[in-house]
Design goal:
Layout (H helix, E strand, L loop, with lengths): L5 E4 L1 H8 L6 H13 L3 E5 H23 L4 H21 L1 E3 L3 H9 L7 H12 L4 E3 L3 H6 L4 E2 L1 H11 L2
Parallel strand pairs: 1-2, 1-4, 2-3, 4-5
């Protein structure tokens, strides 16, 4: 039996998971499959889900424009449907960590270490949700994170060791 962990995944990890052409897709998929198999708790900061929706739709539209030179109405609708599918999947496999005004205050205090406000909100969510690990592919966030944070590949290694 493996140890129960709560893993808050950064927005970039979710994007890697849902967009197969991103360089981190395979390892993000390995992480989520492994965590799911071990019954680990996956979580996301509420602001991340709107970013995933927007970026998945935008990336599908960009890919369509690159492939065909244009974006048809049906391709734009399909990109939105794909984004909704990702949002629905996130809600099914992970817990939302809500943020309130105190978390925004905490995030603003992270600015001294790390000036990216979106990342600071993820840090606040990790604190609020009492995540064991914040999992990210953001090197700057990993260097400055005041909570336990691992890269996706390092988190995979930890999960593999727990599964022995």
């Amino acid at each position: 039996m493996s140890q129960q962990l709560a893993l808050l995944l950064d927005t970039n990890v979710w994007l890697d998971y849902y967009l197969p052409w991103r360089s981190g897709h395979a390892v993000a998929q390995r992480l989520i499959v492994s965590a799911f198999k071990q019954n680990q708790t996956l979580a996301y900061a509420v602001p991340s889900i709107k970013d995933v929706f927007y970026m998945v739709a935008a990336e599908h539209k960009r890919a369509e424009r690159a492939a065909t030179g244009a974006l048809s109405e049906s391709a734009a609708r399909a990109a939105t449907v794909a984004a909704w599918g990702c949002v629905n999947n996130m809600q099914e496999i992970a817990c939302a960590v809500p943020l309130d005004h105190t978390d925004v205050w905490i995030a603003s205090k992270q600015r001294v270490l790390h000036g990216d406000f979106e990342d600071d909100l993820v840090i606040a969510a990790a604190m609020h949700g009492k995540a064991d690990y914040l999992v990210t592919n953001d090197d700057a966030l990993l260097r400055h994170c005041p909570v336990a944070a691992l890269s996706v590949s390092d988190m995979c290694t930890v999960l593999e060791q727990l599964d022995i």
